[in-house]
Amino acid sequence: MATECIAEQFDFGTVEGRAVEAAFDAGLVTSDAGALLLRATDRAIGLMDRFAACFHDERRRKLIEHEVATLVGQRVFAIALGYEDLNDHDELRHDPMMAVLAGKLEARRADCAPVAGKSTLNRLELSELTPTRYHKISHNPIAIRTLLVDLFLEAHARPPRQIILDLDATDDPLHGEQEGRFFHGSHGRLRVKVSCSASWANLRWLFAIQGLSPLDDLARFRHQFKLTFGRRA
Fold first, then answer.
1. What is the pLDDT of residues 91-101, one digit of tens each?
2. What's the predicted TM-score (pTM) here?
3. Are 139 and 54 in contact (CB under 8 A)?
4. The dihedral formed by the CA atoms of 77, 83, 84 and 85, expressed in degrees to the nearest 10
5. Residues 191, 228: contact at Cβ < 8 Å?
6. d(Cα 85, Cα 121) in Å, to the nearest integer?
7. Minimal CA–CA distance to 101: which of 152, 30, 206, 150?
8. DSSP of 31-48
């Protein structure tokens, strides 16, 4: 006689009159549901659309599957969820949660996923100041720096009594014998981390700057503060 060994449901008794059961018919589940809060925050401040506006896309419109806003949002949300490696996106591009975050549940082409894979995202991250033959998306670093400061300023309903900027060099240690490891850190690739503390709000804002000297950036910060808060900045 055949024996049925695979149960579809397990009974773990009751708690305060309610049944405790385990089943396998819940459909798609995710451990990244907290990302929905990130999406709600983005919709409130328009971060991804404003960030995407710092890029220029010269790809052929009719052939575009993944818009710049989708690529930028996918990368930012994934990093926030702990998926820092681009290789992760070969799986994440099929993840329903990433599709929800991108606002695009289905791809327009049958051979594509709703969001991008590692190769497409890699071309975005390697974008230059002007488009090239193989990198059609370019970026404006000044616009990106300005946006980060604008977001900080917009978080204040009124001018803070005091703003303290703390600049720290970052270090991302390399392990092993990777090619190019001798050019790590210094040689113009060191990022400066800027923490800002507003005395009345206990607010800390963090972002990275790269390329210009810290003095140049501090001068730019002060100019933006003055435009927003007036002469007291």
1. 999 998 898 88
2. 0.73
3. yes
4. -130
5. no
6. 11
7. 30
8. S-TTHHHHHHHHHHHTHH
Task: Extract the tokens encoding 82.
Answer: 């702990």
Q: Which two tokens stand for residue 132?
A: 């090239």
Q: List the domain boundaries for the chain.
A: 35-139, 141-170+190-229
- CB-based contacts of 79: which residues, under 8 Å, 6+ apart? none
Token pair in block for residue 127: 């974008």
pLDDT of residue 48: 93
DSSP class of residue 63?
G
Query: Residue 169 has which token pair?
Result: 């060099």
| Contact between residue 30 and residue 97 where contact means Cβ atoms under 8 Å apart | yes
Task: Using DSSP, state whether 166 is helix, strand or coil.
Answer: strand
Nearest to 104 by CA among 127, 129, 74, 149: 74
Number of helices (H), then strands (E), belonging to the chain: the values are 8, 7
> By C-alpha distance, which of 146, 149, 164, 147 is closest to 201?
164
In 92-218, beta strands by DSSP E? 137-139, 163-169, 192-198, 203-209
pLDDT tens figures, 118-159: 998 988 888 888 888 888 999 998 898 888 888 888 888 788
